Amino acid sequence: MHCPNCGAPFAAGMSHCRNCGVAPAQYAPAQYGPAHYGPAHYGPAHYGPAQYGGPALPRWRDVSTLHVPLIVLLVADAGMALLLHVKWFAPLMFLMQFMATAVLMLIWLFRARHNAVGGKHQFSPLWSVAGWFVPLACAYIPMRVVLDTGRASTSPDRRTSVTVLVVLWWGSLLLSLFTGAREIRAERAESVAFIGLPGSTWASAVCLAVAALALASVVRRITVDQQRAFRPR
């Protein structure tokens, strides 16, 4: 017989579990036997670092179905960013790839954030999508959502490496805007404005490529950690 609460072996005649102190008399053995509480039922999903609370994911929360095409698109974006000043068709191709990447990224991030219920989060899963479209705040919210999701999905000893990847991604993305700043003068006016055009200079294109590759690493890392947490033993 096994303890209905923790699954530890429970010898006959014992009134309470030596491991957790629960009395088995309050549970029905037929319903809460070892087959229900054995390690094959819970696995690392129940005791994983993010404490997701269940061994199975509904399909709409599964990040594994999206991470491969998303990583492929991000790597393609990095390559195309380096060709922006070399090939005439590169800007159009990059724009098309970027739109496809953005759609997949929003879906993947919403699922990943929804799965990462453990840890501390500054923003709810809704902000994983809405945060990209809020003026000014979009310079912080997406990065914070990805960072909190990554830290909640991995073990404490690996959180530093996740933080480094996220900072590299977001810092390179912002740097691509600053290095791609162009001076815009209004016609028949003396006003001057500067607008960030990612990839408009070689420095900006390189930063954009680095950001895409760093984000691909972040996506792979979070997906692998969440797959490991939900995979049965």
From TrEMBL:
<dbReference type="InterPro" id="IPR025565">
    <property type="entry name" value="DUF4328"/>
</dbReference>
<feature type="transmembrane region" description="Helical">
    <location>
        <begin position="201"/>
        <end position="223"/>
    </location>
</feature>
<feature type="transmembrane region" description="Helical">
    <location>
        <begin position="92"/>
        <end position="110"/>
    </location>
</feature>
<feature type="transmembrane region" description="Helical">
    <location>
        <begin position="66"/>
        <end position="85"/>
    </location>
</feature>
<feature type="transmembrane region" description="Helical">
    <location>
        <begin position="122"/>
        <end position="141"/>
    </location>
</feature>
<feature type="transmembrane region" description="Helical">
    <location>
        <begin position="162"/>
        <end position="181"/>
    </location>
</feature>
<dbReference type="Pfam" id="PF14219">
    <property type="entry name" value="DUF4328"/>
</dbReference>
<keyword id="KW-0472">Membrane</keyword>
<protein>
    <recommendedName>
        <fullName>DUF4328 domain-containing protein</fullName>
    </recommendedName>
</protein>
<keyword id="KW-1133">Transmembrane helix</keyword>
<feature type="domain" description="DUF4328">
    <location>
        <begin position="87"/>
        <end position="223"/>
    </location>
</feature>
<keyword id="KW-0812">Transmembrane</keyword>
